[in-house]
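Appendix B, record 7
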Amino acid sequence: MYKKNRLFFLSFIIIHFVALAQSKKNITIHSHNDYEQNIPFWNAFNNDLNSIEVDVFLKDDILYVCHEPNKIKKERTLESLYLLPLEQAIDLQLGHLYNFQLLIDIKSEANTTLDKIVKLLQKHPKLIQNKNITFVISGNQPEVEKYNSYPEYIKFDYQKENQLTAKQWEKVALISSNFKKTSDWSGKGKLPIEECNLVQNIVNKAHSHGKPFRFWGTPDYKRAWKTFIDLGVDIINTDLPYESSKYIRSLSERVFHNTQVSEIYTPTFASDKKNTEVKNVILLIGDGNGLSQISSAVLANGGKLTLTQLQSIGFIKTQSSDDFTTDSAAGATAFSTGQKTYNRAIGLDANQNFIPNITEFLSKKGFNTGCITTDEIIGATPAAFYAHQKDRGMDNEIAADLLKSNLSLFVGGGGKYFDKNALEKVFTLPQKVDDIANVTSQRIGFFLAEGGVNGVINGREDVLAKATKNGLAFLQNKNKPFFIMVEGAQIDSYGHHNNVGGIVSEGIDFDKAITEAIKFADATANTLVIITADHETSGFSIPDGNLKDKVIEGDFTSFDHTATMIPVFAYGPQSQLFTGVYENNEIYSKIIKALGIDKTN
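Structure tokens (predicted):
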């Protein structure tokens, strides 16, 4: 897994808070019938809702919170449930009051009730003098001709077709309408285009008066919230304060407009699934790259990847020996040794015993071997192909193992972990990634960075694809069979941060490396390519998007790995061995079988 550096964290934090600030500025979430919540006011306020609705009924000169007089409870008044808590929030400097509105829905006679509301509010100067708070009258209202007779802090929720004077419009805080008069849409599936147009016209009319717009009587689901936001509805009506706030406030972070392109390569399939000799093996691992991550890259790339052209497809189960979900160390060790192990183990079995990995085994059979990654080269996944340590965090020990390894080639970040003089005694270190192909030395290494490697969204260019292309050329020039592991590491990193743009852009970048591998397989006819992942990260899903505009909306259930099965794609001779459903450690034995090598020798 990619080791996060300070720059990565800083950029993530800046993006997070800028997006949050933008969502707060542009979208009002309205707690409909808030008094029916288990904890009125505080539930909505704590979840960052900036509009709260309360029904009031005037009886015996007291403003009770209820819908009708037979449901009056003496202790539930407008003052006790809303005005005093709002005052307390100000005194204690709790939450964020930004364009906050208390929408008071009058259920008793309009004029006398509103007069009582004004009289009550005058007892709370801290509220009526606060420029961030507006009191909006809805439900039963006085005639529009009386609007301007009320104090400045009193505004109105306008729901009629009448034309108002300019001065009367100044007293209108918002325009509202009953959604059920426009559509019977349930909020599931797409809103029909005809009804989209109707909604858009209603919103546009409200905006022509310079006022925000709200529907009530709306479906209360994620798709509905997103649909109304996309259609320009300014105030989202909800009975689900926590769920709506969590979804809407994170929406700007989770919608990604892709600009990366992986040019699709169509394989010849001349050697695919043939029972012919396999000379070379390319194993590509997209760290954290589950089916939804792959799907997001496909959809953001116009509906295709080179990866999705392949025909031999299977699934692996990823559990480690000690946990329901694997980490990258145990997952990569299963690939590299054929044995499941405990999480954090590098090249050791479940009892912490040394087990040879595939690069060591194949080196004895006359193979050259290599590792390429967008992680630091001592990261868990590449380390599992050359190192043996009890814990993935043993950086110095893992770095020492690289010097003792049989690798012919390595490319990755993490130069700071190595003594350059000691390293140059073992590996030639070219200056540029494009030089790799032409190096005549037997062993080479190339550092993409001293520490962690930048992500694509932070400016990294096609270095993974270039390293793959040049690394394959280097190995081919040695005129020996080879095994190479290529890792697209940062799909996982961005999954841990629930960063949709990072996941999509790294997935597309990974496909560029896959393209180089498939082209090489077609050119040689004796190369087997396997593409998979060690695990899925973040419980990623794709609730919405736009193929034409390459827009992806992502959502998450976790900040960590999940246990979902992982797809395996294979191409070239013997690729059919990788179909079906099996354990992750069987990747190793299938590779050895495809090579026609006796594992016992």
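Remarks on this record: Residues 500-524 form the longest helix (25 residues). Confidence is low (pLDDT under 50) at residues 1-25.
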